[in-house]
């Protein structure tokens, strides 16, 4: 059986009327393109040299002369440079020289610039400019450190790189949002009316609804009002306490009606522990919030 490729060729060629004739490979006539003769002989080959110029855009408008000039003006690097020339760097005293003294055997002077190995020590006045130039591509902290350490150095350069990137607005805007932490579920209560969750729903048709739900039995009490006040909330909670007894814990959001001095005094007098949910995270008061959502949905459908 022929291979799949031969079969495809056979199908394609079946539309033509032709005769297949076998010719030995040694008898084939060579194609003209690969066997075209060159009748003119040439012994001298002229060589041409081409210069391909690549324009480089150096965004850092600094030269070694600028760094050398600012090195002479820098109060610390000027003394370090002089001490290196005199061989007295290890004699410099003071915390501002400790980072240089620890590298005294590795520092040198080249074109009036201080070098640590092959890295240039940048004067204080030029550091901010050079950091911003290196960070124009908005690399991350690790890659920026790797890039800068290859060419320049000064004491605490890593901290300045971290500060620059952490305060860079374009970098922070494109950072992925931190993962939301998992909600810690409320510990189940053992008895009814031990812990209640309260919240206000509305406005619904010019009214507000005070929702009170027992965490154990899921029993719900709803009260209608035109204004949200601490006095109204206290009065309704007092009615509930008279019917079902005092509670141990009350959970609410950070609304003014729940954080007022009047409301806090009422809870304190009745020995009720008050737990405020995290601002901006209504799901931490899930039992009351879920029922509020249910009420709103039903009211919108009516």
UniProtKB/TrEMBL annotation:
SUPFAM superfamilies: Ribonuclease H-like (SSF53098). Coiled coil: none annotated. GO terms for biological process: DNA integration. InterPro entries: Integrase_cat-core, Integrase_H2C2, Retrovirus_Pol_polyprotein, RNaseH-like_sf, RNaseH_sf. It comes from the Eukaryota. PROSITE patterns: INTEGRASE. It is an enzyme of class 2 (transferase). One of its GO terms (molecular function) is nucleic acid binding. Residues 184-302 form the Integrase catalytic domain. Its EC number is 2.7.7.49. PANTHER family: PROTEIN CBG26694, PROTEIN NYNRIN-LIKE. This is RNA-directed DNA polymerase. It comes from Drosophila lebanonensis (Fruit fly).
């Amino acid at each position: 059986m022929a291979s799949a490729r031969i079969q495809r060729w056979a199908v394609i060629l079946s539309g033509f009327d032709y005769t297949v004739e076998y010719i030995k490979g040694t008898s084939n006539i060579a194609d003209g393109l690969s066997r075209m003769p060159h009748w003119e002989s040439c012994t001298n080959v002229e060589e041409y040299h081409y210069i391909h110029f690549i324009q480089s855009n150096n965004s850092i408008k600094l030269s070694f002369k600028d760094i050398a000039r600012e090195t002479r003006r820098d109060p610390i690097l000027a003394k370090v440079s002089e001490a290196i020339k005199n061989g007295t760097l290890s004699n410099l005293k003071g915390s501002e020289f400790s980072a240089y003294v620890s590298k005294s055997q590795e520092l040198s002077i080249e074109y009036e610039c201080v070098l640590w190995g092959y890295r240039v020590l940048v004067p204080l006045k030029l550091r901010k400019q050079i950091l911003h130039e290196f960070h124009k591509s908005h690399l991350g902290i690790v890659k920026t450190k790797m890039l800068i350490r290859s060419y320049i150095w000064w004491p605490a350069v890593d901290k300045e790189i971290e500060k620059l990137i952490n305060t860079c607005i374009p970098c922070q805007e494109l950072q992925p949002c931190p993962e939301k932490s998992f909600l810690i579920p409320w510990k189940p209560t053992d008895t009814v009316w031990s812990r209640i969750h309260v919240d206000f729903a509305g406005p619904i048709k010019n009214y507000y609804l005070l929702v009170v739900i027992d965490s154990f039995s899921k029993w719900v009490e709803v009260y209608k009002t035109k204004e949200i006040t601490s006095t109204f909330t206290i009065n309704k909670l007092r009615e509930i306490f008279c019917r079902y007894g005092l509670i141990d814990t009350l959970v609410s959001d950070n609304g003014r009606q729940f954080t007022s001095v009047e409301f806090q005094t009422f809870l304190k007098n009745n020995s009720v522990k008050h737990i405020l949910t995290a601002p901006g995270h209504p799901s931490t008061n899930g039992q009351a919030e879920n029922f509020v959502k249910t009420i709103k949905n039903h009211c919108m459908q009516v």
